[in-house]
Amino acid sequence: MTTEALRPTAEGLGRGPTRTQQALTAAHLYYMQDLTMEAIARELHTSRSSVSRLLSHARETGLVDIQIHSPQESAEHLAAVIRERFGVAAYLVPLPDHTSDVDRLERVAMSAARLLGRFFDSNMTLGVAWGSTMSAVSRHLVPKALSGAEIVQLNGAGNTRTTGVVYASEILRRFGRAYGAHVQQFPVPAFFDDPETKRALWRERSMRRVLEVQEGMQVALFGLGSPFAEVPSHVYIGGYLDPEDYRSLSADGVVGDVATVFYRGDGTWRDVALNARASGPDLDLIRRAARRVCVVAGLSKLPSLRGALAGGLVTDLVIDEPLAKALVS
């Protein structure tokens, strides 16, 4: 229990300056100098019960403002627990528990956009996975003039309804414009119909060039796709998956994805059937990036977040405080 302020008030003065001054003196001695009530009574030449009444008067009239700061709930404590338990740096965004998931995502994305300049600099390559979260981040980027910087798309966005070029390229364009960076798009489907088609295309020199840029990225930036999220991940609502795909993901125990590469709650992913057709990067490639910045908001993302942490996909975590509390509880 700490005393944040000791101040005379108009209300207290209205009850009599002598009583107010005595209450203020008693409050200073008790809260600021740690004297006992008996010691204060001796100093003020009064009784212990009178000191108790003066302290009550100080609290009731606003002379004393007492606040309780629980270290178990502070952002600093939560960040320290996450670092100790999961080995990642956490950047917590304080939000009321009643905040909607839409507002929660927007505010966490804004914080991530302002933090990104710390991790991305000149002569570096930033890998970006498209999706609802990255779209929100791209709208809040803080301009930073860089030289020799490159932005590379991590996964294709095409499906049977659209090429996905307009959606993904707009996200990449915002990143490129904010940092003055060269943008390397990846114009392929999000999921191939046949794994053999993917393997054949990956042998083409034009595709190899993009894949080599991905392999050289120092920073990977991504959200977490989730079939459970209240703000649906784009891959789950954008026509990318059919009923058979959903049955396959359920059979494999999938809890989420990074750049349309799916993983389980324990972080395993290599034998998830749908990944053979996914255009997203091998998750080992994500783990080789020096910084892996994960942006996540909403309690419904908790299973996806636990899986990503179990898989060692994250070095830096931008997260809303209620979700952080749920993570460590």
Give an overview in words.
- The protein has 329 residues and is α/β, with parallel strands linked by helices.
- It has two domains: 2-67, Homeodomain-like (Arc Repressor Mutant, subunit A); 75-328, 3-Layer(aba) Sandwich (Rossmann fold).
- 46% of the residues lie in helices and 15% in strands.
- It is built from 15 helices and eleven strands.
- The chain has helices at residues 10-14, 17-32, 37-44, 48-60, 75-86, 101-119, 132-138, 165-179, 195-202, 205-215, 234-237, 243-251, 283-288, 302-310, 321-328, and strands at residues 2-6, 64-67, 89-93, 125-128, 150-153, 182-184, 219-223, 254-258, 261-264, 291-296, 316-320.
- Helix 2 (17-32) crosses helix 4 and helix 5 packs across helix 15 (321-328).
Name a few traits of the molecule.
329 residues, alpha/beta, Arc Repressor Mutant, subunit A, Rossmann fold, 2 domains, 7-stranded parallel beta sheet, 11 strands, 15% strand
Question: What are the SSEs and their pairings?
Answer:
Elements: E1 2-6, H1 10-14, H2 17-32, H3 37-44, H4 48-60, E2 64-67, H5 75-86, E3 89-93, H6 101-119, E4 125-128, H7 132-138, E5 150-153, H8 165-179, E6 182-184, H9 195-202, H10 205-215, E7 219-223, H11 234-237, H12 243-251, E8 254-258, E9 261-264, H13 283-288, E10 291-296, H14 302-310, E11 316-320, H15 321-328
Parallel strand pairs: 3-11, 4-5, 4-7, 5-6, 7-10, 10-11
Antiparallel strand pairs: 1-2, 8-9
